[in-house]
Amino acid sequence: MPDWTLHTGDALTLLTGLDTPVDAVICDPPYNSGGTSNAARRSQSARDKYVNGDAQHALPDFDGDTRDQRGYTHWMTLVLAETYRLARPGASALIFTDWAQLPATSDAMQAAGWIWRGIIPWHKPISRPVKDGFRRECEYVLWGTRGEPLRHAPTIYLPGLLTGSQPRGANRQHITQKPLPVMRQLVQIAPPGGLVLDPFTGSGTTGEAALHEGRAFLGIEQSPGIAATARARLAEAV
């Protein structure tokens, strides 16, 4: 089973000190969506934005989700520029976003140097209804590459539409946790034995998926408590 490393601290601060070449960048940054005014953004916690009011769990909140769109775009550009610096030629970046931040995320990705290759919708069968409107059952993964995409041998054909709902009950360890089957598909963009970087590791789903699919993992998580959860998952996956 490939190795894994998880650093605890701020993503941008720690990325600037790394020099390990990576084969893919796959991450779920804080979307900084929600309130339509600065006051609303500051007053809403991540839990307020992303967890139903009747949720029975008490999973920890996380920082970094109160930037306005200009601040978010600038910050994401800095982060993605550091990941681009670490990426091998042909490496892919897969960045999660929602509808509100999709334009900002694509701007940041391209400003950082990545070539934007497309959007992969993520359909969530279990999702929030909207009164007199359309259910929020889709988020997105932006795909970019450093130069021409890596040519896999043998050739791979990955899906252009992802489907899967967030874990529920005892399996849910983070308020914005992504489904493991979805992440296991995404990590295949890295070559077997390659290194996957996730600067927003959360509870470790990207890392667990990478290890299960025969890839190594390098992660960064800001919250010490959430990082401890991720380390336990990664140790169990090895």
From TrEMBL:
It is an enzyme of class 2 (transferase). PROSITE patterns: N6_MTASE. One of its GO terms (molecular function) is methyltransferase activity. Coiled coil: none annotated. Gene3D superfamilies: Vaccinia Virus protein VP39 (3.40.50.150). InterPro entries: DNA_methylase_N4/N6, DNA_methylase_N6_adenine_CS, RM_Methyltransferase, SAM-dependent_MTases_sf. Keywords: Methyltransferase, Transferase. Residues 22-230 form the DNA methylase N-4/N-6 domain. SUPFAM superfamilies: S-adenosyl-L-methionine-dependent methyltransferases. Its EC number is 2.1.1.-. GO terms for biological process: methylation. It holds the Pfam family N6_N4_Mtase. Belongs to the N(4)/N(6)-methyltransferase family. This is Methyltransferase.
